[in-house]
TrEMBL record:
Matches recorded under Gene3D superfamilies: Spore Coat Polysaccharide Biosynthesis Protein SpsA, Chain A
This protein's record includes keyword Glycosyltransferase: yes
Coiled coil: none
Family under the similarity heading: Belongs to the glycosyltransferase 2 family.
Listed name of the protein: Glycosyltransferase 2-like domain-containing protein
Domain Glycosyltransferase 2-like: 6-152
Keyword Glycosyltransferase: yes
A UniProt-annotated Pfam family: Glycos_transf_2
Keyword field: Glycosyltransferase, Transferase
PANTHER family linked to this entry: GALACTOFURANOSYLTRANSFERASE GLFT2 (PTHR43179:SF12), RHAMNOSYLTRANSFERASE WBBL (PTHR43179)
Amino acid sequence: MDSLAIVILNYNGHSFLADFLPTVLANADGHPVYVADSASTDGSVAFVRATCPTVRIIELSRNEGYAGGYNLALTHLRQQYGGARYYVLLNSDIDVTPGWLSPMLTLLDANPAIAACQPKIRSYAQRDLFEHAGAAGGFVDWLGYVFCRGRVFATFEQDKGQYDDDRRVFWATGACLVVRADVFHQTGGFDSAFFAHMEEIDWCWRVQRLGYEVWACGGSTVYHVGGGTLHKSNPHKTFLNYRNSLFMLYKNWPADGWLWGKIGMRLVLDGLSSLLFLKVGQWRDVWAIIRAHGAFYAHLPQLNRQRSLLKKQQTKEVDLYPHSIVWQYFGKGKKRYKEMPDL
C-alpha cells in the first residue's frame, strides 16, 4: 500500500493535463499519480500514455461526474493497486507548487481525527487573490449557504497571509482535497446522486457527524483555473448548485421540528435570487432554479431514507454558522470573512 496517491479525475481535459500534469509529476514527492478518465473523447488517455508514462491510468466506462467518478476510481485503485493511506483528489486545472504536499501530510499524521484537509486555493488568473472553489476553507450557515475564508459570494480577498494558519473548518474543497482513505471508504464515499458540485461539502458534513474533523492547511498553496469542466456561466452548474444544496441540507439538518421551516425559507430565498438572473436576462438560469426545486421534491423518498440512516449512524452534533450569510453580505454589507460575527 502506498502512503499517498494523487488522483486526477479527468473528462475531456486534454488541455489542462498538458498544462498542469507535468508540474504535478515534478512535485509529487515520489508518490504515484493516477489519471482516472471518465470516457473522454478528446484523446486525453492517449496523450497521458504518450507523454507521461509513469502515470497510472484508470479508465472508467462512462462519465459519472465528480461524485460517482471518484467513487469508482478510488474503489478501483484500492482493488487493483492496494489503495493508499491518503488520497489527494486533484482537479485537472490545478497548478501545484513545490512543497505543497508536505504540510498537509504533516497535519494529517499529527491528528488521526482529521478526515480531510485542503491547501489555500488561489486564482490561477489573478494569483494574489483567493479562488472561488474553497479559498482558505469553508463554512455553512444555518440555511445551508456556503462561504469561505477569503471568499464570500463574489468578494475575493487578496492573500496577505491572513489565513496562513492551520485551523478546523466545516468543509474542504474538492478542487484539491486530501482525504484519509479508510474514512472515505467507511462512509461509502461521495453521494453519487449529486453528480457534481457540493458533494464534498455533504461528505465533510457526514464525516463530522461521525466524530471526525476537517481542516484547512495554511502552509500549502495551489492555484486553480476554475470552471474547467463546467463553466460558471453554464445553467447546468446553476441547477446542480441549487439542487445539491437542498439535498445536503435536507439529509444532514439535525432538528426535525425546524427542517421544513428551514427548507421553506431556502426555497423563498432561492426564488428571490432568481430575480438577479432575470435582471440580466439569464432566463435559462431561472429555469435551472425551478428545475432544481422540482428535482429536490422528486428525490424526497431517497433523501428520507438517507436522512434516517445518517441519524442512526451519527455520534456527534455538528454546529452550523448561526447567522444568515445572505443577510450579513447583502443586508448588512459585510463582505469579508473576518467581518462576520461569531466566527
